[in-house]
Amino acid sequence: MVASSTDKDNASDAGNSEKSKSNFFNAFHMPHMDTEKLMNHYKKNLEILGSINKMSAEVYANIAQMHSTFVKQTTVEINDLIQKKGKPSDTVAKFSEFTKDNVVKAVNNCKQISTLLATTHQSINAAILKRFRESVDELKRKKHPSDAGNEQSQ
């Protein structure tokens, strides 16, 4: 099969598009600022945010799994309780005990989820804060190449 000229044009457009994206910010000159380094800092920040987003999604999936397991277990226990035959007074007593036990389990389950969420949010916030502090420190330490000439002349 012969490649059409539009396929070649699309391939070259994709290459040119990447070049134009990388050169886009080079067209802007800010005094005492290296825009390429600035964009690298933003890229690192976005990478951290992407990994944090992934971690958050995994934690919420784990929470959903925990909740699903709890609900399934409770449903099985309810079905077992309903299937058992006996005196009505025994059934009421068993159901009361079952309800009490499951309320305690539900509260403990909520505490686990709450603790998991709290620690996850603390980790996420710490990672974001750390990256942005590093980024600001890096920007403060690094000087624009044009500054080197200015410092020597002073």
What would you note in describing this structure?
This protein has 4 helices and no strands. The chain has one domain (34-144). The longest helix is centred in the C-terminal third of the chain and has 54 residues, at 88-141. It is rod-shaped. Helix 2 runs antiparallel to helix 3. It has helices at residues 5-24, 35-83, 88-141, 145-153. It has 154 residues and is mainly alpha-helical. Helix content is 86%, strand content 0%. The termini are far apart.
Structure summarized in a few sentences:
This protein is an all-alpha fold and 154 residues long. It has helices spanning 5-24, 35-83, 88-141, 145-153.
How much helical structure, as a percent, in the residues? over 70%
Please give the number of β-strands.
0
Our count of domains comes out at 1
Q: What shape does the CA trace take?
A: rod-shaped
Mean pLDDT: 78
Please give the largest β-sheet.
Answer: none
What is the element string, with H for helices and E for strands? HHHH
- The fraction of residues assigned to DSSP E strands is under 5%
What value does the Rg take, in angstroms? Answer: 30 Å
Structural class: mainly alpha
User: Count of helical segments?
Assistant: 4
Distance between the termini: 66 Å
